[in-house]
Amino acid sequence: MVLTDKIDIAAPPERVWTLLCDQDRFREWNFGVRAIVPISSGRWAANSCFRMRYLFAGSEGNFLCEILEFEEPVKIVIHLKGGNLPLGGYIQEIYELSASTKGTLLKRSVAVHKSGKNFLAGALLFLLHYLSRRRRTHLVKLRELAESYV
């Protein structure tokens, strides 16, 4: 299952990227993130690892995260495993930035593999994602931060 959202942000991709990849500011706009504990030192880059307490599909879990792709300021892929997922299950959060007439078009995709949810629960989650007004709240907050960033 892949859940996708897009948002236009009136700021250059470099500014959005700064907020997107700053582990200290990640929680400011991504409300699902409860805590981040670095494993790798320094700024995020390809192969950086960290632990994250994360709310997904209504329940919190402790995930081991690795940055699989880090293409500044275009794309970051964060791979999450563990938490409340079954063995072999994982989530990938993919953020893609491109220049637009307004500044930046941000596309966020969440790919869930073997979530442990049955077909009906997965279909309900998918439906709720696309019907919910709250589904983009974190992206709206990211937009607000990027557009007011000094």
Number of helices: 4
Strand segment count: 7
CATH superfamily: START domain
Strand content: 35-45%
Low-pLDDT runs: 118-124
Radius of gyration: 15 Å
User: Do you know the CATH architecture?
Assistant: 2-Layer Sandwich
Query: Could you please say which CATH topology applies here?
Result: Alpha-D-Glucose-1,6-Bisphosphate, Chain A, domain 4
Mean of pLDDT? 85
Largest beta-sheet characterization: 7 strands, antiparallel
Number of domains: 1
Q: In angstroms, what separates the terminal alpha carbons?
A: 37 Å
Q: How would you describe the overall organization of this protein?
A:
This protein is of the alpha+beta class and 150 residues long. The chain has a single domain (2-148), classed as 2-Layer Sandwich (Alpha-D-Glucose-1,6-Bisphosphate, Chain A, domain 4), CATH 3.30.530.20. It is 25% helix and 43% strand. It is built from four helices and seven strands. A seven-stranded antiparallel β-sheet has the order 1-7-6-5-4-3-2. A hairpin with a 7-residue loop joins β5 (75-82) and β6 (90-100). The radius of gyration is 15 Å and the shape is globular. Mean pLDDT is 85; it is low at 118-124.
Layout of SSEs?
Blueprint: E1 2-9, H1 13-20, H2 26-29, E2 33-38, E3 49-56, E4 59-71, E5 75-82, E6 90-100, E7 103-113, H3 119-131, H4 137-148
Antiparallel strand pairs: 1-7, 2-3, 3-4, 4-5, 5-6, 6-7
Helix pairs in contact: 1-4
